[in-house]
User: Fold Bifunctional deaminase-reductase domain protein from Rhodococcus ruber BKS 20-38.
Amino acid sequence: MHQLVKVQNFAVSGDGFGAGEGQSRERPFGHADPGSMFAWAGATASWPNRTDPGGSRGLDDYFTRDFAHNIGAEIMGRNKFGPQRGPWQDHDWRGWWGGEPPFHTPVFVLTHHPRPSFTLSDTTFHFVDGDPATVLAQAREAAQGRDVRLGGGATTIREFLDADLVDTMHVAVVPAVQLGAGVRLWVSPDELLDRFHLEVVPSPSGVIHHLFWRR
Ligand SMILES: NC(=O)c1ccc[n+]([C@@H]2O[C@H](COP(=O)([O-])OP(=O)(O)OC[C@H]3O[C@@H](n4cnc5c(N)ncnc54)[C@H](OP(=O)(O)O)[C@@H]3O)[C@@H](O)[C@H]2O)c1
Assistant:
């Protein structure tokens, strides 16, 4: 069966940014507030970090619940993994997610500064330097027949779009958030219409789900 390469639940501001400027340990999304970018998912019944019972059902919940469905590996950029740049100064940094990362599969972190792999619970992080097609081949093999999630950030997604390696993409646009600067996925989703079909589905939460699939 064909293994899809999927972007899922990637949140962008109304003006198309996946993160703000000035990322740091204290501010994983730079000047953007991840709480407001992901309020739509956090309010759902399926949000994995939910501490109180309840939560919404419906479209936002469907996407939140579907995040891990049939995914066998993730590819992410080095800036999603953490705030360090250049050669690793702090090898103790093992990502933002603590001892139980939410991936539960092999994760391939794209970087020009590879370091040894390590495992936290059921997630193994591999650090790979290579062009998108080569890294995708590694991720496909690790996924053992299941799909590969492209986890972001915007730089990595753009790189895979430019290489024409993305099959489907779900982007949640959050109109209430305007960032003005940062890492941008698009100026307008129309940029992708030469290669993708697009269906735009507003949710009662205020986010606007954008669903792309290849022409
Ligand atoms: N909105 C969302 O849903 C969402 C999702 C995920 C992440 N984020 C946020 O987005 C931000 C990160 O996004 P970003 O666009 O700045 O960066 P990114 O895509 O996470 O990472 C880009 C970096 O990855 C490395 N890289 C990319 N392609 C490579 C290749 N082919 N070979 C080797 N290395 C490669 C390079 O790092 P080096 O050269 O330094 O190694 C590059 O600077 C963070 O703030 C994160 O929290 C948001």
Q: What stands out?
A: Residues 10-11, 18-19, 23, 28-30, 37, 76-80, 85, 110-113, 129-132, 151-156, 159, 183 surround NAP (CB under 6 Å).
